[in-house]
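About this split. The held-out portion is used to measure sequence recovery: a designer receives only the structure tokens and must propose an amino acid at every position. Recovery is the fraction of positions where the proposal matches the reference. Here is one held-out target exactly as it appears in the evaluation file.
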């Protein structure tokens, strides 16, 4: 069966770049304007795999995506970390002086705010997606308008990059997870990271006890995120990521947490994306 990769955003977006980095260039894309739509395509079988941003070094955790993965029983089969670069692009043979407006996603505009203080003649206009704007400019031959988008968009749509790396904070990285509805057939030798979810009672020290178990089982805790349990006020689910050297130690951890915690779930086991 050929893989169809659902991405949030359009061709030429950061999600597209991650899909290409993970699966190679010859992939079939399913473009989605929301993460809810992405999950819907996975559930109805019109996509086999999905790429979802899960956290960013500036914006923090994308909390609704944790809930989407959990509530729809998706399996995390991999991850990618991507340094985010914002580039200003427009139709060829234009200059920044000839650009009257820049259209892009609100977050991209915010992250490039300092750059545009040097170009007060440019009006900033919020739009739905970075790459979709780049595609529209190219398809409709719109002059005087520029997009903020990844360089991959300029390559795909034949736009000219007017300025590279216009983001204010240069060290901006996003973690993406690769998800699907089916459990992957992965060798234990390739697995050194896991994403887990569990709930704890209100007993004093219950979270500390779990953290101690993680340490005793030689786990490296790389992420912990709490989400409220909607049906039960003041009760929380915990989402944790751990890395490990020995798969047998991870197996021991799973057995212990399954006893200690409520609603314990393995969201995914996969290869650590950090080099």
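Reference sequence for scoring:
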């Amino acid at each position: 069966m050929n893989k169809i990769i659902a991405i949030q955003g359009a061709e030429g977006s950061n999600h597209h770049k991650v899909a290409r980095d993970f699966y190679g260039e010859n992939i079939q894309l399913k473009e989605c304007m929301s993460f809810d739509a992405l999950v819907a395509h996975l559930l109805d079988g019109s996509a086999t795999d999905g790429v979802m941003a899960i956290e960013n070094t500036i914006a923090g955790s994308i909390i609704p995506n944790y809930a989407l993965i959990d509530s729809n029983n998706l399996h995390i089969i991999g991850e990618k970390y991507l340094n985010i670069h914002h580039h200003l692009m427009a139709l060829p043979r234009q200059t920044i002086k000839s650009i009257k407006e820049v259209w892009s996603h609100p977050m991209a505009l915010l992250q490039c705010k300092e750059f545009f203080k040097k170009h007060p003649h440019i009006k900033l206009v919020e739009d739905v997606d970075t790459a979709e704007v780049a595609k529209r400019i190219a398809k409709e031959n719109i002059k005087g308008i520029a997009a903020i988008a990844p360089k991959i968009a300029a390559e795909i749509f034949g736009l000219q990059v007017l300025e590279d790396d216009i983001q204010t904070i240069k060290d901006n990285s996003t973690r993406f997870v690769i998800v699907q509805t089916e459990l992957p057939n992965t060798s234990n030798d390739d697995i050194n990271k896991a994403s887990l979810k569990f709930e704890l009672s209100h007993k004093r020290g219950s979270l500390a006890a779990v953290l101690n178990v993680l340490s005793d089982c030689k786990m490296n805790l790389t992420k912990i995120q709490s989400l409220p349990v909607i049906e039960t006020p003041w009760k929380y689910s915990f989402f944790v990521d751990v890395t490990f050297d020995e798969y047998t130690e991870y197996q021991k951890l799973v057995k212990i947490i399954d006893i200690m915690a409520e609603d314990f779930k393995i969201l995914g086991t996969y290869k650590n994306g950090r080099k």
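Annotator remark: The CA atoms of residues 196 and 266 lie 5 Å apart.
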